[in-house]
Amino acid sequence: xxxxxxxxxxxxxxxxxxxxxxxxxxxxxxxxxxxxxxxxxxxxxxxxxxxxxxxxxxxxxxxxxxxxxxxxxxxxxxxxxxxxxxxxxxxxxxxxxxxxxxxxxxxxxxxxxxxxxxxxxxxxxxxxxxxxxxxxxxxxxxxxxxxxxxxxxxxxxxxxxxxxxxxxxxxxxxxxxxxxxxxxxxxxxxxxxxxxxxxxxxxxxxxxxxxxxxxxxxxxxxxxxxxxxxxxxxxxxxxxxxxxxxxxxxxxxxxxxxxxxxxxxxxxxxxxxxxxxxxxxxxxxxxxxxxxxxxxxxxxxxxxxxxxxxxxxxxxxxxxxxxxxxxxxxxxxxxxxxxxxxxxxxxxxxxxxxxxxxxxxxxxxxxxxxxxxx
Amino acid sequence: xxxxxxxxxxxxxxxxxxxxxxxxxxxxxxxxxxxxxxxxxxxxxxxxxxxxxxxxxxxxxxxxxxxxxxxxxxxxxxxxxxxxxxxxxxxxxxxxxxxxxxxxxxxxxxxxxxxxxxxxxxxxxxxxxxxxxxxxxxxxxxxxxxxxxxxxxxxxxxxxxxxxxxxxxxxxxxxxxxxxxxxxxxxxxxxxxxxxxxxxxxxxxxxxxxxxxxxxxxxxxxxxxxxxxxxxxxxxxxxxxxxxxxxxxxxxxxxxxxxxxxxxxxxxxxxxxxxxxxxxxxxxxxxxxxxxxxxxxxxxxxxxxxxxxxxxxxxxxxxxxxxxxxxxxxxxxxxxxxxxxxxxxxxxxxxxxxxxxxxxxxxxxxxxxxxxxxxx
Lengths: 374, 376
Known about the structure:
heterodimer, A: Ubiquitin-like (UB roll), 3 domains, 10 strands, about 20% strand, B: eleven-stranded antiparallel beta sheet, globular
């Protein structure tokens, strides 16, 4: 069983990366890895990926001590290398239990793991498996919940999560409606909170997602961590993400008539968007329920009072950068409307634009995180 | 009909062109089209694409008649045609719905006969052609195609001048399964041709189909196109739609008032904007119909490009007021309406629920194809 799972996991990696992953996994120590690679090279000139993987799996099985948890850890290492292939959803942990002082908070993965296992036993059958790792300062977890009747490896029943220690942010992949509540209950208790809430923030690039979410919640113990991380110290590993300054070609033969206008546009954009590169989001969706607004074409429709409902979706490799480039190039009027610039502060992908109902409901709307347009 | 200049079938002369060319020619080289206007109303006279206005004004001045004499046209109005739809025809029209087709344009086919023995002969030649291609190893990834049938397809020929549509079916089986099913279909048709580009004397030898729809794997489609080109000495060209035509179709199809799907416009952001690639803008169908009715005003039978432009500009300016992004500077990539989904690369999927609307789509495709047919 573990043999098959191991094969399934390794086959999804690129051929060159297989040995990299094995080295990080550290299940086979140095000598064994050497002998393995020699054996593989000795076979034929060009080894196909599946035969390579079978060889590796056999070797691991022969060594002994190959449990589901260990295989899960290998899966986590693979995931760490290709995290952009998956779609991540950001959730927020709410209402911290226990005292607010940081002494009682446990961040050791082993402790969290035992707590989590205990909780999982209550809700799920015995085949479930938990693997937890601390990679790059973040807690990576993998929960495998196979359906009892079926045989073989069920990769769709794997739930991965990334937790930023000491912060209320947790990022999931593979969360299903069927077991969502149970999982959230287990995790929440294990990490010391009361509730889990969906933040409506999704994407492929989890560091950007985390950055967006964490900017919202920097208070208390986590703000110190953030300050140290973002402080521009010489020992800081974080690479500078300053934007490249746009260059004006100084050529006396070219006369730019609206240079002042262009400069003004760039200044406004810099004030709004900041001088750093924006976090990567692949999709921003809006559901617009506003009355018809055009002034030239059929303006009498706007007085109808009826709502013109539409859905708008912006897609691309980095949509927030795209907004900024649209404005720089002139396809959008500067200053950009608030709902495009506020994405970073709101930490959401999906927005609802609608007219305010009446004055009493305004506070309710604000708390439900809707952008209200007049 | 409504705003056409009066035609007299009796005394008419064609401009004297070289007798060598097979097709009817005009000074500008394109067929007659209603100038910049379309007609609503009964099916037989509705929904034409706008043509090139300067050509048409000149032709209008010369008082040249169309291919189909007025008298013949009016005798069989569309409503009569509709009520005559048989079960078979209804079924055939429904066949077009719900599948993804690629649209192609054809030049007239030479020596296409439609009696049964000839059709069977065509089926056999196509099957052998496919078998030869199989042996050559063309169909590696897809299922193995086997038999082909060429048959007539009734229901799509509305006007008197239309040739009965042709359906070509290619059956095959998937690699590991044993059942034989249809893997590719092609429909050649021309619905409600307003102008037949063939001269009278060569009509017996040539047949004109405005449009061909093919669905199925790419390799099978290529084989089919090659066979048609070789067998009937014609040319098959992929049909692409420009942004402008797509916008026009979006406006037109909204007017058919089916509201089960939203109107979706997908814009392509220019390449120089890094980071953003597409903007999808989908509006509720009933709101679109409301806007359309306001623009249309009275229930007149004329429909112009100006009205279509107004509709699209209305939607784009609503977007601009909310987002300050100028959509009119970007290209339309695909449109999706309750009637059909059309893409710039010639993909088509019909969603229409009523057969009349399906026929209207076919009519529009015919018009666009005939417009594209340039004559030297």
